[in-house]
Amino acid sequence: MSRAALGIGLALLATPALAAPPARIPEPMAVSGVLDAFHAAAARADGKAYFDLFTPDAVFIGTDAAERWGVEAFRAYAEPMFAKGQGWTYRPRSRHVVIADIPCGCIAWFDELLDSDSYGTTRGTGVLRKTRAGWKIAQYAMTFPIPNALAKDMTGQIRAYEAKAKN
């Protein structure tokens, strides 16, 4: 290689656009972006976008004790509503994301407080796994956070309901 060619090559490497790798989105922000897309897809009843955010072996845990669905069972439940244009709206109020401190950094877990049009304050918790296609939801659990001052009354109502359901 001539000195001139070498000089041109070194000059190109020194060019700011080529010298640094492209900016990466910090992983917690990338995870938050997936969760925001998840809630947005549900609100617009976009089943394809919604279910594309899950891993194939994902689990959705609903608010009812009987609601523990694999992603295909959850799809069978939700798709008829989405097909009618009926989704659900949850707006994040706060969110905490932790990326696993392991070499691959390929697991994240989160908790978020949400405002629901139907239920008011709700909480989502779960786990995302980093795949070749990006971050995907491996588990999502939805709960109703009950203020401690109301917990005994509410759990009493649940016990009474469950006892009645057994009979």
TrEMBL record:
Pfam families: SnoaL_3. Residues 33-147 form the SnoaL-like domain. Keywords: Signal. Residues 1-19 form the signal peptide. InterPro entries: NTF2-like_dom_sf (IPR032710), SnoaL-like (IPR037401), Steroid_delta5-4_isomerase (IPR011944). The keyword Signal applies. Coiled coil: none annotated. It comes from the Bacteria. This is Protein with SnoaL 3 domain, NTF 2 superfamily.
